[in-house]
Specification:
- With about 400 residues, the protein is of the alpha+beta class.
- Helices cover about 30% and strands about 15% of the residues.
- It is built from twelve helices and 15 strands.
- A hairpin with a 5-residue loop joins strand 12 and strand 13.
- Helix 4 packs parallel to helix 6 and helix 6 runs antiparallel to helix 7.
- The two termini are about 25 Å apart.
């Protein structure tokens, strides 16, 4: 989900480095209370790798297994990363570079992996093991691997080994094996031997159980004559050209509440480059405050849980309060996409609903930056931020109400 147009080094910056780039304004002294939540596995840390798409996606699958099996599974991100990078490299070469190669990916890459590559337990291919660490650092991998792929893109007639495989592909695979490890063909888990595909099958996970949803007005909604038809969101990291069902915006936003109520998590592709997404742990979509009737900007704050009304707070009240939230229109949301103000920046997992002490609603988000921020890796985002800055979501089809499944044809 990282922005492919960024330099590779920027894509791999640690959380602390990103936080230093943008000073964070002080947050209100939030006290969050959980209203509803879905069980999730512990927060992980992608560290210096642009693999949020995989950490969030595997978090969704692990939550699915908690729901269906009542058991904690720790699935390997690096196995899916390895297989996905090899596929993306091949697509870049086949298209002569029209498909970019980067560490990024889409929400579809994880659900695609279930049936095409299978899954393995994390113990079979943990992050950082090849260089004696427990977290990823893909800086050197990128420095060595990307030039190989770039050279293959420029080669008019690739050399081929006697077994029929292009040599560039062997070279790229070898580099990734050095830094990520070899993908296991067979392994033993809890006393039984599996292949990656048979392991995924034993978990009861299937790619077809999941659907990508979005809401943009430049393509027809998936209703009427277009019922059941999606479109490929035009971002570089959607390099598999995965199709997303295009929902009307209010319907799309309702899916978040419906999924959580039904006991499902939401794999969330969003844009966290906004100043209102604080590394301290809160994302909001604030109304631009105006000074009226000699009331200072610092005195204009939202109180009482009314997300559409800003009221003046007494001047002697020094408490920092949440700002009023703006509910974006269809046109405003589309304009942010068209001007690249909204991009496929980061993948996270939405798993619950909470309220602050003023009664305002937030979605609970599992991030993959370790136990960072004020809430040990859990972030709280307002519905208005979700409405404004969501690129797409992937959910279990059963998480979507029957009315919407019928309306949009999936």
């Amino acid at each position: 989900m990282k922005k492919s147009v960024l330099l590779a080094a920027a894509a791999m910056m640690s959380v602390s480095a990103m936080a230093q780039q943008r000073p964070q304004a002080p947050l209100p002294n939030y006290k969050f209370t959980t209203v509803d939540s879905v069980a999730i596995t512990p927060v992980k840390n992608q560290k210096n790798a642009g693999t949020c798409w995989c950490y969030s996606g595997m978090g969704m699958l692990e939550a699915e297994l908690l729901r269906t099996k009542g058991k904690v599974y720790d699935l390997s991100e690096m196995y899916v990363v390895f297989q996905t990078y090899m596929d993306r490299a091949e697509k870049a070469v086949r298209t002569s570079g029209d498909v970019s190669f980067s560490q990024g990916g889409s929400t579809y890459d994880v659900t695609y992996a279930i049936d095409h590559f299978g899954l393995v337990p994390d113990v079979e291919m943990p992050a950082g093991v090849m260089y004696g660490e427990t977290l990823s650092n893909h800086s050197e991998l990128t420095a060595l691997g990307n030039p190989l792929i770039a050279a293959a893109v420029k080669t008019r007639k690739p050399q081929v080994s006697p077994d029929g495989e292009p040599l560039w592909k062997k070279a790229v695979r070898a580099v990734h094996e050095v830094y990520l490890g070899k993908c296991p063909e067979k392994f033993t888990f809890e006393g039984k031997e599996y292949t990656p595909k048979s392991f995924a099958q034993s978990l009861g996970l299937k790619s077809d159980d999941y659907v990508s949803l979005t809401s943009f007005s430049h393509e027809p909604y998936s209703t009427g004559a277009n019922k059941g038809k999606g479109f490929a969101i035009e971002v570089q990291d959607n390099w598999r050209w995965a199709q997303s069902i295009n929902m009307e915006l209010d319907d799309f936003c309702q899916v978040f509440d419906d999924a959580i109520k039904a006991g499902y998590t939401i794999l969330w592709a969003s844009d966290v480059s906004e100043a209102t997404f604080s590394r301290q742990g809160v994302g909001s979509w604030d109304v631009e405050e105006k000074v009226e009737d000699n009331v200072s900007i610092d005195e204009l704050r939202l109180v009482g849980g009314d997300t559409n009304k800003a009221v003046a707070v007494k001047a002697n009240n020094k408490e920092v309060l949440p700002k009023p939230q703006k509910k974006v229109t269809v046109a405003e949301r589309q304009a942010m996409y068209d001007t690249k103000s909204t991009t496929d920046d980061h993948g996270m997992l939405i798993f619950g609903i909470a309220k602050d002490q003023w009664g305002n609603k937030y979605y609970m988000v599992k991030n993959s930056w370790g136990e960072s921020g004020n809430y040990k890796g859990i972030y709280y985002v307002t519905p208005e931020f979700v409405r404004a800055k969501t690129m797409n979501v992937t959910v279990n089809k059963a998480a979507v109400s029957k009315n919407f499944r019928d309306k949009y044809g999936f």
